[in-house]
């Protein structure tokens, strides 16, 4: 069953066509890895899903509602984007709030969860990402891997139906990527629906149900990770993988 359906999405920045008729679906409980060279439009695509970018044409459907249909946005955008969570390369934590407060700020501000539940949920999630002892620490006291685990726990606070990751380990020292990938792997095991932009080909091969290769604003090839990453059909995919591996 398709949870997110992207149809012929177009986006330009001035004269630059960043997304050219991009279409693909994400099924419920599926992990989709998006790979591709820098500048191919991967971040723009993810950001469009949660309305951090406005697209110029095409449709984005979420379940049975349209965030945008034929370029026309819904009136209740927030109701739709609230159903998704996003994790960024640079963590985007609030530096003046401690770890627990970082998790609790959004649900508190939006009144979308009973206050008593917010504290319980944040404790639960900090335990899940192994950061219970760091609840009262501030982001600048944490390693990059710990910061990213806070960001993941924060994204989970509102019970999102899908989690979007934009190069979640690209800002981390190599020895810290493992702890973040482990949390993501655990989420995949729990059947969380995820779209992960990543350069971690090992992770894509092992965890993703499907790999999408983007280049120059287009989806060039998609399919089973074992196929796309090991036996790519398109020349552009072959060339990219040769440079990456
Ligand atoms: P990727 O994530 O695959 O590296 P991006 O989606 O970040 O690619 O960027 C795609 C292209 O769009 C790049 O050429 C980038 O420079 C350009 N771009 C992204 N955001 C903006 C912006 N806000 N204004 C102008 N150009 C942008
Ligand atoms: Mg990017």
Automatic annotation (TrEMBL):
What's the domain of life for this entry?
Bacteria
Q: What GO molecular functions are on record for this protein?
A: ATP binding
Alphabetized UniProt keyword annotations? ATP-binding, Nucleotide-binding, Transport
InterPro entries given for it?
AAA+_ATPase (IPR003593), ABC_ATPase_HisP-typ (IPR030679), ABC_transporter-like_ATP-bd (IPR003439), ABC_transporter-like_CS (IPR017871), MetN_ABC_transporter-like (IPR050086), P-loop_NTPase (IPR027417)
Q: Which CDD domains match?
A: ABC_HisP_GlnQ
Q: Which family does it belong to?
A: Belongs to the ABC transporter superfamily.
Instruction: Supply the name of the protein.
Output: Amino acid ABC transporter ATP-binding protein
Species of origin reads Chungangia koreensis
